[in-house]
Amino acid sequence: MSFPNVYDDIQRAEAYATLEFPGTYYLAYRDLPAIIAEHVKGRFVLDFGCGAGRSTVFLKKLGFDAVGIDISPSMIEVARKADPHGSYELVDDGDFSRFVPGSFDCILCAFAFDNIPDNDKRVGLLRRLRELLNRDGRIILLGSTPEIYTHEWASFTTQDFPQNHTARSGGTVRIVMKDVADHRPVVDFVWFHEDYLRLFAAAGLHLIASHKPLGREDEPYRWQTELSIAPWVIYLLGR
What we know:
By secondary structure, the chain is of the alpha/beta class. It has helices at residues 10-17, 23-30, 32-39, 54-61, 73-82, 119-132, 193-202; strands at 44-48, 65-70, 87-90, 104-110, 133-144, 156-157, 172-177, 186-189, 206-211, 232-238. The protein has a 7-stranded mixed beta sheet with strand order 3-2-1-4-5-10-9, with helices on both faces. Strands 6-7-8 form a 3-stranded antiparallel beta sheet, with no helix packed on it.
């Protein structure tokens, strides 16, 4: 049985707009302020694959001048409605020509590379994003670990998709979000740490640091697997 990728429709976009950062998603963003404060200099940030704008608003609350871009008209529409004073731009896939090369201090890619299946396309996108960085700029790539697709979580379930366990690099995997009313399975593409290392090298970026956030006992969530297995990985990259 196959499922459509449901990111680009108004129902999913509206669900994302109300999601904020509950449960497992909290771990994806919890440590970002400290990482950004240590490694990012300057105030101009591009949010690549901004979706419904929650990561862009997150960056704005940290004091950055942030621009969100996405290829999904539905997501951009909802982002603009939710944050009418924000800057959100619909772009053609891989077209960053409206931006001046070297103009950003940081580029955040939150979950965007989970949705890109082709390795050559991934390399091309990351190369073009690299060109938008200034000399001391940083790319922060936040992605899903392969383990997120094979365990149960506070915010996700994968128990109905045993085929996830045998997925190879770039293969399709399915996951259901429990924190929104839209429970249609989301189709992602699984990529392993070694795949990302090859991606960074091919794009002309070097890995400065990586971080896998774990849940803590004193946090107000009913963690399932989060205390011992990381659902997310944060890669910090430089030119």
